[in-house]
Write a structure and sequence with these properties.
- The chain is α/β, with parallel strands linked by helices.
- It has a six-stranded parallel sheet with strand order 2-1-3-4-5-11, sandwiched between helices. The protein has a six-stranded mixed sheet with strand order 7-6-8-9-10-12, sandwiched between helices.
Length: 327
């Protein structure tokens, strides 16, 4: 009888431990700890993990696909594999991080639509060719690019500026920039306007600053600078001011990300607009992991989730600023 009680006790203990074990989630931050946008994504993801009772850890990609793959490989070789991972694929990486997670049998959620057409054909969509790929969570980059273009040109139209000339600063060559620029061009087509030139600054402020100086020399009548990120937009603003331009009078500049310094600049008439809301995508992915852990197989849950972003301008920035403050 005592052996029976012992067996029952052991089973009960194991069952209790199984119930109390928290699902673990690894966030693969594609940048570094001091990146202002990804820092915010990471912070809100951590808050969500805490609220949902998830174990949380982070590894960094150091702003390069090879570094990201190397750091993720080292993490998985030195730690117990997490139950879930949240990653963003670098363009041209051919899904190497996803294949690594597949080998370790880690369920994962991807952020953004960054795969090239070639990689998409090879890798497919969540659950098609890769067993542990649960979901692709992204925002509507094309619509966001359209909305930013509309906001900047409508602000410019309120001034006696005609015709309106537009240049654009993209990030890396890849799907994210392509989708945003596609929205920009779609809007310009509705206005019978054309883009003077698109340059790629690799998401770097220093490159964007130099490119803006060159663009303004080449196209001195430019009134709108559309940028694929706030960091690059603020650098463009600095270059435009140095060139004698006046923000929100004869020059209108905007970007993406709702970075706090960018929102401050909008309040001070040093930037025209910012599109954002996607700093919450890490938190949404945590919810996705929680749902899978508690509700069952990924076939029962949405494999592709897309949400829209919003424009911050001088009229609504005071309401938006508290939303992006982690405190």
């Amino acid at each position: 009888m005592s052996w029976l009680k012992l067996c029952v006790g052991v089973v009960a203990l194991v069952f209790t431990c199984a119930l109390s074990a928290k699902p673990s989630v690894l966030l693969v931050n594609p940048s570094n700890p001091d990146d202002p946008f990804w820092q915010k994504v990471e912070a809100f993801a951590a808050f969500a993990a805490h609220d949902l009772g998830l174990e949380y850890d982070v590894v960094y990609g150091d702003a390069h696909r090879e570094y990201q793959h190397q750091n993720l490989t080292e993490y998985l070789s030195s730690h117990q594999a997490p139950d879930y991972a949240i990653i963003i694929n670098y363009p041209g990486a051919k899904g190497q991080d996803m294949k690594l997670l597949e080998a370790h049998k880690v369920h994962y959620i991807t952020l953004e639509q960054t795969l090239s057409q070639e990689d998409r054909q090879h890798l497919g969509y969540p659950g098609e060719k890769l067993k542990f790929w649960l979901s692709e969570l992204s925002h509507d980059n094309e619509q966001a690019g359209y909305d930013l273009a509309k906001e900047l040109t409508e602000q410019a139209k309120m001034q006696p500026l005609s015709p309106i000339s537009v240049v654009a600063i993209g990030g890396h060559y890849g799907a994210e920039t392509d989708h945003r620029v596609r929205g920009l061009n779609r809007y310009l087509a509705t206005q019978n306007m054309s883009l003077s030139q698109l340059v790629h600054a690799q998401w770097r402020a220093d490159i964007a600053n130099k490119q803006t100086t060159q663009l303004l020399r080449r196209y001195p009548d430019t009134q709108v600078i559309w940028s694929a990120s706030d960091e690059m937009a603020m650098a463009a603003s600095d270059a435009a001011i140095l060139a004698g331009k006046h923000i929100n009078k004869d020059m209108f500049i905007g970007g993406f990300d709702w970075l706090s310094p960018a929102l401050d600049r909008i309040e001070k008439n040093q930037l025209s607009a910012s599109v954002g809301g996607h700093f919450l995508m890490g938190a949404w992915a945590m919810i996705k992991a929680y749902d899978h852990a508690n509700l069952g197989a990924h076939e029962d849950l949405a494999t592709k989730i897309s949400f829209k972003l919003a424009v911050a301008n001088s009229e609504n920035v005071a309401r938006i600023k508290p939303l992006v403050n982690p405190e």
